[in-house]
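Final paragraph of the annual report: two paired records, presented back to back.
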Amino acid sequence: MARPKTPTNILRLRGAEKKNKARMAAREHEPKPAKGIAKPPAWLSRRGRKIFRELAQITTAMDVLTVADHPALAILSDAYDGYFVVSEAITEHGMTYTIINRDGNELVKANPAVAMKSDAWRRIQSGLSKFGLDPSSRAGLVVNHPESDNPFDVEPLPKMKPGERKLIPGTRILAPID
């Protein structure tokens, strides 16, 4: 099976316009959906909607998100939410369970949620890759953000010893302890 075509905006971020002008000229007449994203769909869970908004903010800042990506981002957010749901089930019920067979012997079986978690992770990896949100798919991107217009351009955190940081409430960011 042939590899899927790389989106034009991703090629531009990789600098393909300079490398292969004929390739980019051939894509001149493809559809150009508007930038940005709509609100999360109502069918997503509360956590799914939060994930949707976080991913939309990140991918909009990366200049890879358009309104045509709404369904794909919603499905990615749903898979991400499903991953958390089955992770919680595994935490509550364990990775295995025990049954007694007809002969009276105990058998240890894998919790079905473990396979569901693995499947959700594969779907998440695929979706993240399509939006350039994993290290390998992002490795070839060349993004030029003007320093003054980039809200995500922040000073790096100072070097810290283990234990000298705390989680900023409501985020997944570690910051130094003052």
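The closing record of the year follows.
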Amino acid sequence: MTDQIDERDMVPAMSPVEMDGDEPSVEHAAGELQVPLGYTVLKGAVDGRRAVGIVVSKFNAEITNALLERALAELDEIGVPRDAVMIMPVPGAFELPVAAMALAKTRRYSAIVALGCVIRGETPHFDYIASEAASGLQLAAIETGVPVSFGVLTVENRKQAEERIDRAADAVRSALEMADVFSQLRAQAAGPLR
């Protein structure tokens, strides 16, 4: 016998992403995650209590400068002090993972934000760089236990990149939310068993 879950027994586990008046992409489904009542939900908050490392690619600098500017504005808006932010520029997106890993291993930063831009060209180079940047950044997070957010634009052209500069703010918020939820998890794990 299966239990029927009534929508009235659901509580939102996370708030919807604000779209700033833009229509959501047809490739993404809108809505909130709903968790039935009675379950413990470990939910991260976004606040300015944590030190943040930013690794940023110098390649496609016109775009990555805008990404960095947007990320720093978001950190400032959230209340993260400037002296709690370390910025590490690297040559390109391929170098982002090793820089993220190095910052994470210092244990001085609660989260790392990776910013870069890879624009498709006429050769398979794009596929290799985009793939290795993504898997390398994930590996840095998995191996260190420090959240590494993916603020790397992988686009067909410059216009698409310019339209996605706000993804840097999303990456900042994701990094801080994950840092908070990891902190709560560690505190809960250190407490008594239920």
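The two ends are 28 Å apart (CA to CA). This concludes the annual technical report; the extension proposal builds directly on these records.
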